[in-house]
Amino acid sequence: MSPRLAPRRTPRRAADTPVVHRVAAVLLRYPDPAALACLDDVTEALPAVTDATDRARLAAVAAHLRALTPTEAAQRYVATFDHTRRRSLHLTYYRHGDTRARGMALLALKHTYRQAGQEPPEDELPDFLPLVLEFAALAPEPGHRVLVQCRAGLELLRRALAERRDPYTPVLETVCGRLPPPDRRERETWRRLAADGPPAEQVGLDPFAPPEYMAGASAPAPHPGPVPTSVAAPTGESR
Questions:
Q1: What share of the chain is helix, strand, coil (3-state, %, to 5)?
Q2: Within 13 Å of residue 108, how many CA atoms lie on the same side as its CB?
Q3: Who has greater pLDDT, 226 or 60?
Q4: Is the N or C terminus of the chain more exposed, i.e. has fewer CB atoms within 10 Å?
C-alpha cells in the first residue's frame, strides 16, 4: 500500500519549529565531516522539540547517521538523493522541471532570501532543501512562506522516500507535518505531478537565471555552507 500524501499534522507554527528546521537542515546535508560533527549539536537541541513524535523521528535519523562510517553515510546519501530526479533535494524541480518557470522561481527565492537579510551562497541553488531549512530557521516568517510555496516538492520527495522505506523519511515527515493542512486542489496537483512528472522543456532557462544557478539543476550537490555551532532556536528573524 502506498503511503498517504499527507502526513500527520502538528500544530501550525509551533514555537519549536525553528529548532526543527535547523535540526532537519543538518540531517539532510551531505554527510561530510563538518556535517557529521554537528550531530552532537542535534542531540543537544532535540529536547527543545516539544512534539514527542517529531523528536523521536529526528533522533532516529541522527542515530542512523551515527551508526554509519563516514564513507557509508556519504555513499547512502548519494544513492538516495543524487541519482534520481524522483528524490531530488531541489524543490522547484518537481513543479517546474527544466523550464523557464523554474528559472523565475529560483530568482524569486534568491530575492526572498536577500529581503530577509540572508545572502544565498553562489555555489548552490536557492531551492536546495537544507539551504531552505537553514533560511527558515533564521527567518521563520519568510521561511515558512518559502516552504509552503515549495510544498509540492516537499510532499513528492516525502512520498518517494517513504515508498522505498528510506532512513531519511522521518525528516521529511517532520518538516511536512509542520505545514498547514493541504486543500483539495493541492492534493490534486501532487497526484498529477506524481503521475506525470515535471514539465520537460529543456530550453529557455538562461535568460531568467544566471549560469551558475543552472549548472547541476537536476541533481543536488553537497552544500558546503557554514555549519551552525548550535541548533538552538533563534530569537527572531535575521535582518
A1: 60, 0, 40
A2: 13
A3: 60
A4: N
Residue range(s) defining the domain that contains residue 156 = 17-214
In a domain, 12, yes or no: no
For residue 48, report the phi and psi dihedrals to the nearest 5 degrees. -80, -10
Instruction: Let me know if residue 3 belongs to a domain.
Output: no
Q: What's the pLDDT tens digit per position in 95-104?
A: 777 778 888 9
CA distance 133 to 144: 9
Please report whether residue 229 resides in a domain.
Answer: no
Handedness of CA 123, 137, 148, 43 (dihedral sign): positive
Amino acid at 160: A
Give percent above pLDDT 70 in the chain: 73
Q: How far apart are CA 55 and CA 118, in angstroms?
A: 28
> For residue 224, is it within any domain?
no
User: Could you tell me how many residues make up the chain?
Assistant: 239
Please tell me the distance from the alpha carbon of residue 106 to that of residue 93, in angstroms, as a whole number. Answer: 10
